[in-house]
Amino acid sequence: MTTLAITGGQVLLPDITVTRADVLIDQDDGEILEIGDDLADDADETLDAADSLITPGFVNGHCHVAMTLLRGYADDKPLDAWLREDIWPVEAELTADTVRAGTELGVLEMIKSGTTSFADMYFFVPTIAEAVADAGLRARLGHGVISVAKDDEAAREDAREGLAVAEEIDGMADGRISSAFMPHSLTTVDGEYLAEFVPQARELGVPVHYHANETTDEVTPIVEEEGVRPLAYAAEKGMLESEDFVAHGVHVDESEIGLLAEAGTSVIHCPASNMKLASGMAPVQRMREAGVTVGLGTDGAASNNDLSMLDEARDAAMIGKLAADDASAVPAGAVVEMMTRGSAEAIGLDTGRLEEGAPADLAVIDLEEPHLTPRHDLVSHLAYAAAAADVRHTVCDGRVLMRDREVLTLEEDAVRARASEAAETLIAAAEE
Ligand SMILES: CSC[C@H]1O[C@@H](n2cnc3c(O)ncnc32)[C@H](O)[C@@H]1O
Ligand SMILES: [Zn+2]
């Protein structure tokens, strides 16, 4: 057994309290062996966490990681126009090579901001899986299925690809990669395909993940054409099971919050994307009070425009108060829980907490910074004041992915250069 001790830090425990302790890891099994005092002597190697906070690695519950290539490409538009006029025409030109370059850039950014796990819906998913495996992260990945603007055979082929990819990649990278069936949304995949293919996802035993109730433009047509709210429609299609998770959940009414709570379906809140696209304010406080598991996600870098979960946590706390018209709503402890265990539970990964036997997925935050001084409350600092650049070390599955800001699994300069080139190639192809 090879062991690593993370020493001298403060540790964020599962009950969202902080205590002074070392963390001892079994690097072969990728598990936490012990959290306690003076564990350095028991370890083969150490990682210094003096003046630092050791937190569970952050869990990004909803992303399109290769969209880093489109960061800053099309800003300041609402969702539907943004997708149809700018994003989808460019995405039509994606290749496995450009997706690899965008994914490497995205996972580099994640490692540098303390994220160790994420859920992702995109294209060229086996390529994304390889990049995630090489970078050392944990992820639940799926092919985004769309039927609009496709003929029947193309739509079926796309859905079949969604299932085939889910089967192919599940369990890759010693189990660090898992999969899901991912229809894009309730309005971009026709009901007949949902009815046909969702049961096949159940047979495969994978969860279903989709965008839901993100804008009023997505709610109105379903109410008008189906006569029910979108999440009641999703339930009719068999898409509201306890392992399923929806992204956004902005325009959900009380009946839909009740459906989510009853079914155990989770919601990934994406506050930055919801603000940037002016989609609306999700009723996070009400969903949490009703017992819905709420996680946090960045969405893609083109609608955020970064992949930092620390930014997302602050945004979630701020907009949560505004939405509830209550400064005590969505407090620091709630967003810290959402960015760790909440997202992990939502996307079905057994991580997001620091305790004996849990996966050794963690981030170490440097507290020796002016904006983290004084240290009245480290949970408050994590929610409101810490930034991506404060992350010192990142560890996933017991492996050190970043030590003292040096990423060990990716060559940072080369990744940035390849991504810049891929972005240029992509835009040039779209403008041809
Ligand atoms: C079919 S793969 C995923 C698909 O989703 C698009 N996308 C990115 N951000 C959003 C969002 O906020 N709502 C809906 N769809 C989004 C992405 O560009 C891909 O086409
Ligand atoms: Zn999305």
From TrEMBL:
GO terms for molecular function: 5'-methylthioadenosine deaminase activity; metal ion binding; S-adenosylhomocysteine deaminase activity. It comes from the Archaea. Residues 54-400 form the Amidohydrolase-related domain. Binds 1 zinc ion per subunit. Substrate binds at residues 91, 184, 214, 299. It catalyses: S-methyl-5'-thioadenosine + H2O + H(+) = S-methyl-5'-thioinosine + NH4(+); S-adenosyl-L-homocysteine + H2O + H(+) = S-inosyl-L-homocysteine + NH4(+). Its cofactor is Zn(2+). Pfam families: Amidohydro_1. Zn(2+) binds at residues 62, 64, 211, 299. Its EC number is 3.5.4.28, 3.5.4.31. It is an enzyme of class 3 (hydrolase). InterPro entries: Amidohydro-rel, Deaminase_MtaD/DadD, Metal-dep_hydrolase_composite, Metal_Hydrolase, MTA/SAH_deaminase. Keywords: Hydrolase, Metal-binding, Zinc. Belongs to the metallo-dependent hydrolases superfamily. MTA/SAH deaminase family. Catalyzes the deamination of 5-methylthioadenosine and S-adenosyl-L-homocysteine into 5-methylthioinosine and S-inosyl-L-homocysteine, respectively. Is also able to deaminate adenosine. This is 5-methylthioadenosine/S-adenosylhomocysteine deaminase.
